[in-house]
Write a structure and sequence with these properties.
about 10% strand; single chain
């Protein structure tokens, strides 16, 4: 049985739940930055979408980490 912490700081027990996968801060930020740039490119490199691209990238990276999946495709290999 694993325990999890609620936002209130109280711990709860989750029967059979796997602990969430945590991405270290520097790696997480790099993944978010690359995904946000990919979204910017996919949107036609139009200015004014930096915040929405960043937030969408952050959500995608965090969702992938929670699911234990690989990070979304960033297009980084294409730029090399």
């Amino acid at each position: 049985m694993t325990s999890q912490t609620r936002p209130s700081g109280k711990r709860t027990e989750a029967a059979g739940a796997a602990p969430p996968q945590v991405i270290g801060t520097p790696d997480r930020e790099t993944l978010i930055r690359e995904q946000a740039y990919y979204l910017y490119e996919r949107g036609g490199c139009q200015p004014g979408s930096a915040l929405s691209d960043w937030l969408a990238a952050e959500a995608a990276i965090d969702q992938a980490a929670q699911a234990g999946a690989a990070a979304p495709r960033t297009g980084a290999a294409r730029r090399r």
